[in-house]
């Protein structure tokens, strides 16, 4: 099973949308294996957004991401990265498809409620960046046989 990383951003915290966002991912059938609320700082944001460090909006993103706590989560499931990205919708929320988190709940490019890993490799790095040993849990979901076929479960 693949793992993916999600940040529920400050705007979602301020708007009381944490449960809605987590619920949408859970209803898809993905397994929550790690969750915590944290306050982001310069050090972690410089690393997390290093690919944007030369952009004129870099400091604005960092300021936004430090404006309130965030909820970081780790999810598990088949094709987890791509499944979560579809649930999120495109970055520009006001143009995102209805039925997605951003399409239904957002209007902004920056205040777009959620960050999700964009590849399996990125997910591995992000999970290591935000979770320590012992904060990711391995357990079997009781309803797994209702989410995946026997072949998909590898049993």
Question: What this model shows, in words?
Answer:
- It is built from nine helices and four strands.
- The chain is of the alpha+beta class and 155 residues long.
- The protein has a single domain, classed as Alpha-Beta Plaits.
Notable characteristics:
4 strands, Alpha-Beta Plaits, 17% strand, 4-stranded antiparallel sheet, single chain, 9 helices
Provide the domain count: 1
Reading the helices and strands in chain order gives: EHHEHHEHHEHHH
N- and C-termini, Cα separation:
13 Å
Radius of gyration: 16 Å
Number of strands: 4
What spatial form do the alpha-carbon principal axes imply?
Answer: globular
Q: What's the mean pLDDT score? A: 95
CATH superfamily: Nucleoside diphosphate kinase-like domain
Number of helices: 9
Q: Indicate the CATH architecture.
A: 2-Layer Sandwich
The major sheet is characterized as: 4 strands, antiparallel
Low-confidence stretches: none
CATH C-level label: Alpha Beta
Cross-sheet strand order for the largest sheet: 2-3-1-4
Tell me the helix content.
Answer: 40-55%
CATH topology: Alpha-Beta Plaits
What's the arrangement of secondary structure elements?
Blueprint: E1 2-8, H1 10-14, H2 18-28, E2 31-38, H3 42-48, H4 58-65, E3 70-77, H5 80-88, H6 101-105, E4 114-116, H7 120-130, H8 144-147, H9 150-153
Antiparallel strand pairs: 1-3, 1-4, 2-3
